[in-house]
């Protein structure tokens, strides 16, 4: 909660804030004040959505289209006193609901465990005494103490700051920590006038405010709590999305009198559509809901047909037949199989550090067309590494093989010295700029060395030289970070600001870290902290005796680091030792050219300098009343020692993951808060944009990388008129990310948004699939449907791959279930023509036989199909059409073809047994009881029951591939007859088919169970029909598959690629790389197969 200030506290002085809140900076709040404030303000907690209650989950499972249909059929069965059939339907409903309920409840509990991090605390001043309390107990007016490493418990107005800086990347997206001050003389950006209103200054520029959930990276300070809970800036972002769709307002004054009716109607439809599952959910959920109601309508029509054929008489026997026909078209096990398949997928993904909070998101991943990704911590490691060091002697030190920002022992440091003379620019080594092996830079022809004259600049192992020693001395001592090895944890631990950590780690590589140097006698006498207005920091040290750097122990030394332009302006000389020379315009240009070279590679560039102080620096001087004058006298006549290039390295697996996305028809967009040039360089490095923008059409290249300010200025119509949406947007605000998602949606995109910060929450919730990082904020995780506990971008791609595998398997078992339903309906409708002596239709297959086939026979193989491994080409196809979903033309046509084939063969069996062998003896009341006259009908039903069972089971093997023969699933397999090995690869499917095939014998031959329950009788010679007709069905499937392959009909189209693809090599011959990845390879990106083609994806049919 927040106090109602007339003006925002960042515009007020400290005393004004203290007076308004009635607090005391020396004593804090009193006990009486605390009691009153606790009654006024709620706990200091973010409402990011608590645990979902069990009854809410249960209602969700019951409000399912397929469950509605089954409940209706159950009620009708009980209505005609068919207790057995009604009871079985009730059991089916209970099983379906239970499976979904327990799985979703388990997922919610696991997510709560994921969010249950260590309880954060705050150090407060109350009643004149310091205390540590839970964050939830903080109230406005509390005095909070901050130190390096603390998490800010609430929004604070800073009134004491000693070198204080906070990491606000999770809030603003800015990777560089923000230095804090206490003054309220904040200028409006771009002007020289003081800000007078809240709207003039963004939250990132209110440097006298520390925000809740941000962390202190250096220094210490104190602040007054001005806002808690949902009234903090973090809380405002968390509650920004109210979830209401546009056009639902009923505000008559604002939108006119018609809006009340229109808004009410739309809200009513939203409620009904949500209840029926027709307006909310993923494409698959909506399609299955539509399928259920469509099948329900078909069942009603079939029931009318049954009543019509029987003269609209409604005795119990006719009603049972009508219900049986309706049941035959309903895939009762579909909900259970679908849920179990998703449960299995989530279990596999959880082992691979992918937590699925919402089962529907897993299916949606298979249809993702665009990934909108944050950069920091997602595409990159979220840490900084010193990659390049340039010394004025033209030496360039390179750190390679290290992706751990904390480990000074990882990787190697080499040194090169290009052969450029003084004042000459060293020849640019384009190949050295390639920092990711998956990307090959396009080198201009005039920059490509000839084969005859190619001379590679020699690289040597770096050694400490006097020039390098002096540089490391300055970098290590002008530094507040610490680096140490934790023996207990067996890992390197660091504290401080990421940039300083990078410098300290580099110095530690040469055993010249700050701690080691101070142990040798270096003693700090003064510090001039980093000031964002002048962008530099300096320290003054007394040199020890016999120092190897050659500095006199009688003099103090000034060490300075900061922005290149600012340091360069203070330098009088460049270089160290004998190579030192006075600075000139030419040397300045050389230094700036080197800075631009590092910056173009996505690196943040800093300058390091020093200055010998004449005599010993008096410690009392550092307490001068005129700090600015003293600092100016210290930071002058500096000697430039070198430049460093520090960058936030991409994850090892990022480029490969982006390449796989490109091969799968998925476009990756980077939406980051970083600087335009840094974002552009990192995007180029990981393959999001090409190195040579000339490969893209001019209109696309111009807008490929945009600043958020430029993108935000555009209207929706202007954005929609763009040929392609930008691949990189820098300096993003939360609203920019949301607008990008809306623009993609208007282009029929189906997007996933990744993020970890609070600022990502609105876009995570508005995206089709929100993916949060496990190390991110609770707000982000609460808004996402999927959480990656390892924060790796390749885990996203693996999750998409798993989503596609699951979606393909859903297609297989949907085809498996519905084709059998079509066959059963054909059989029952044809059976209306079989009239017994009483004039009623005799069903060729009994109701319990149908339920047994649909639930017991079909469920096991369908679940086995759901566990099928991904095909080799699963990531070489475009995302599935979200409008068609599972029911593609191929699935629909196959369903009809196989259903007709199954219905025809079983109908022929019934005709041969009853009419061919028994002269059409249909008996009397054979739908309800067994008699001698019903013998032919009961034996025919048994034969059909076995046939249907075996056909359905064998079709599960056939549907391991919808197009390939089950006798040769992989055309690349060189084995002569791989059938048995291919079938046994999926052990669940194999054994469910084998056991299901054997289960027909007890059902047919156990007395009482056969005639009384299943309404069939043992068979003998009828086996001669069962075997051949089952074989005819298999041959029919193989012929249809062969037709599809030969004429290439109903096939999926390959991904269409242009001249350039994201993450794609652009080498000679346009070599295409593709690889298959399983979850076992999630923790390492070392194993992938290569396929060379002629510019087209090559995959088996």
Automatic annotation (TrEMBL):
The keyword tRNA processing does not apply. It is found in: Cell membrane. InterPro entries: ATPase_P-typ_cation-transptr_C (IPR006068), ATPase_P-typ_cation-transptr_N (IPR004014), ATPase_P-typ_cyto_dom_N (IPR023299), ATPase_P-typ_P_site (IPR018303), ATPase_P-typ_TM_dom_sf (IPR023298), ATPase_P-typ_transduc_dom_A_sf (IPR008250), ATPase_P-type_domA (IPR059000), HAD-like_sf (IPR036412). The chain crosses the membrane at residues 62-80, 86-105, 291-312, 318-343, 813-834, 846-865, 886-917, 937-959, 988-1008, 1020-1040. Residues 8-82 form the Cation-transporting P-type ATPase N-terminal domain. Residues 401-431, 444-463 are annotated as: Disordered. It holds the Pfam family Cation_ATPase_C. GO terms for cellular component: plasma membrane. Belongs to the cation transport ATPase (P-type) (TC 3.A.3) family. Type IID subfamily. This is P-type Na(+) transporter.
């Amino acid at each position: 909660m927040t106090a109602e200030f007339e003006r925002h506290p960042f515009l007020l002085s400290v005393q004004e804030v203290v007076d308004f809140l009635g607090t005391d900076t020396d004593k804090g709040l009193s006990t009486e004040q605390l009691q009153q404030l606790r009654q006024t303000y709620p706990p200091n907690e973010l409402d990011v959505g608590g645990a979902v209650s069990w009854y809410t989950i249960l209602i969700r499972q019951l409000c399912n289209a397929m469950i509605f249909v089954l409940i209706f059929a159950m009620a009708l069965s009980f209505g005609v006193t068919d207790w057995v059939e009604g009871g079985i339907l009730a059991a089916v409903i209970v099983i379906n609901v239970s499976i979904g309920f327990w799985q979703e409840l388990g997922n919610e509990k696991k997510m709560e465990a994921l969010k249950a991090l260590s309880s954060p605390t705050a150090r407060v001043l109350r009643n004149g005494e310091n205390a540590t309390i839970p964050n939830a107990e903080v109230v406005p007016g509390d005095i909070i103490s901050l130190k390096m490493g603390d998490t800010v418990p609430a929004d604070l107005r800073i009134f004491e700051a000693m070198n204080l800086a906070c990491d606000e990347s999770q809030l603003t997206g800015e990777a560089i920590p923000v230095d804090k001050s206490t003054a309220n003389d904040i200028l409006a950006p771009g002007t020289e006038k003081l800000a007078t209103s809240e709207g003039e200054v963004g939250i990132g520029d209110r440097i006298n405010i520390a925000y809740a959930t941000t962390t202190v990276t250096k220094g210490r300070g104190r602040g007054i709590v001005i806002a808690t809970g949902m009234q903090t800036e973090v809380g405002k972002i968390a509650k920004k999305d109210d979830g209401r769709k546009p056009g639902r307002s009923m505000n008559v004054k604002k939108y006119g009198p018609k809006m009340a009716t229109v808004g009410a109607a739309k809200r009513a439809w939203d409620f009904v559509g949500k209840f029926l599952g027709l307006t909310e959910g993923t494409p698959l959920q909506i399609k299955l809901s539509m399928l259920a109601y469509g099948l329900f309508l078909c069942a009603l029509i079939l029931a009318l047909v049954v009543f019509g054929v029987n003269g609209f008489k409604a005795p119990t026997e006719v009603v049972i037949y009508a219900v049986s026909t309706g049941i035959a078209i309903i895939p009762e096990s579909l909900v259970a199989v679908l849920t179990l398949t998703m449960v299995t997928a989530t279990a596999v993904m959880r082992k691979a550090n992918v937590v699925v909070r919402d089962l529907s998101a897993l299916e949606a991943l298979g249809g993702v067309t665009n990934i909108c990704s944050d950069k920091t911590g997602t595409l990159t490691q979220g840490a900084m590494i010193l990659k390049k060091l340039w010394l004025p002697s033209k030496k360039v030190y390179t750190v390679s093989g290290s992706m751990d920002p904390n480990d000074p022992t990882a990787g190697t440091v080499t040194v090169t010295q290009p052969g450029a003379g003084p004042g000459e620019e060293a020849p640019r080594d384009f190949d050295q700029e390639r920092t990711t092996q998956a990307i090959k830079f396009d080198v201009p022809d005039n920059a490509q060395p000839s084969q005859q004259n190619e001379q590679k600049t020699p690289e040597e192992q770096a050694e400490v030289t006097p020039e390098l020693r002096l540089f490391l001395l300055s970098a290590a001592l002008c530094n507040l970070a610490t680096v140490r090895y934790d023996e207990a944890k067996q890992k390197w631990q660091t504290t401080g600001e990421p940039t300083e950590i990078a410098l300290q780690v580099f110095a530690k590589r040469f055993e010249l870290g700050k701690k080691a140097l101070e142990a040798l006698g270096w003693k700090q006498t003064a510090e001039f902290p980093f000031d964002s207005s002048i962008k530099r920091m300096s320290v003054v040290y007394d040199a020890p005796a016999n120092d190897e750097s050659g500095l006199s122990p009688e003099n103090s030394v000034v060490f300075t680091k900061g922005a290149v332009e600012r340091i360069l302006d203070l330098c009088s000389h460049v270089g160290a030792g004998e190579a030192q020379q006075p600075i000139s315009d030419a040397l300045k240009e050389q230094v700036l050219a080197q800075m631009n070279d590092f910056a173009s590679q996505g690196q943040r560039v800093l300058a390091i300098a020093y200055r010998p102080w004449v005599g010993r620096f008096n410690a009392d001087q550092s307490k001068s009343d005129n700090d600015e004058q003293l600092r100016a006298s210290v930071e002058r006549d500096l000697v430039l020692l070198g430049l460093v290039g520090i960058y936030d390295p991409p994850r090892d697996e990022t480029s490969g993951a982006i390449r796989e996305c490109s091969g799968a028809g998925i476009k990756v967009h980077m939406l980051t808060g970083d600087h335009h040039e840094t974002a552009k360089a990192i995007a180029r490095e990981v393959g999001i944009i090409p190195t040579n923008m000339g490969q893209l059409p001019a209109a696309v290249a111009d807008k490929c990388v945009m600043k958020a300010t430029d993108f935000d200025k555009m209207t929706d119509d202007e954005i929609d008129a763009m040929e392609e949406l930008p691949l990189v947007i820098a300096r993003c605000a939360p609203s920019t990310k949301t607008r990008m998602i809306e623009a993609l949606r208007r282009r029929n995109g189906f997007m996933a948004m990744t993020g970890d910060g609070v600022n990502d929450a609105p876009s995570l919730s508005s995206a089709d699939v929100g993916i949060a990082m496990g190390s991110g904020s609770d707000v982000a995780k609460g808004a996402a449907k999927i959480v990656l506990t390892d924060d790796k971008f390749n885990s996203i791609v693996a999750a998409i791959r798993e989503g596609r595998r699951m979606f393909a398997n859903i297609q297989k078992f949907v085809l498996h279930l519905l084709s059998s339903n079509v066959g059963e309906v054909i059989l029952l409708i044809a059976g209306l023509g079989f009239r017994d002596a009483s004039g009623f239709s005799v069903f060729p297959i009994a109701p319990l036989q149908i339920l047994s086939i649909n639930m017991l026979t079909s469920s096991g193989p369908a679940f086995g199909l759901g566990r099928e491994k991904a095909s080799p080409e699963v990531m070489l196809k475009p995302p599935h059409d979200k409008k068609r979903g599972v029911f593609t033309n191929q699935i629909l046509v196959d369903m009809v073809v196989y259903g007709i084939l199954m219905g025809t063969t079983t109908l022929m069996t019934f005709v041969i047994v009853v009419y061919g062998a028994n002269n059409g003896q249909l008996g009397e009341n054979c739908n309800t009881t067994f008699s001698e006259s019903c013998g032919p009908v009961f034996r025919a039903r048994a034969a059909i029951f076995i046939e249907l069972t075996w056909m359905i089971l064998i079709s599960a093997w056939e549907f391991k591939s919808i197009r390939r023969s089950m006798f040769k699933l992989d055309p690349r397999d060189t084995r002569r007859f791989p059938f048995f090995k291919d079938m046994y690869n999926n052990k669940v499917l194999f054994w469910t088919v084998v056991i299901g095939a054997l289960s027909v014998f007890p059902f047919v031959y156990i007395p009482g169970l056969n005639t009384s329950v299943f309404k069939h009788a043992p068979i003998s010679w009828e086996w001669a029909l069962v075997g051949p007709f089952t074989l005819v069905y298999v041959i029919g499937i193989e012929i249809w598959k062969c037709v599809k392959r030969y004429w290439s009909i109903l096939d999926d189209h390959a991904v269409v690629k242009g001249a350039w693809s994201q993450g794609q090599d652009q080498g000679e011959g346009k070599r295409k790389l593709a690889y298959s990845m399983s979850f076992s390879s999630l923790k390492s990106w070392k194993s992938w197969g290569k396929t060379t083609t002629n510019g087209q994806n090559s995959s088996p049919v």
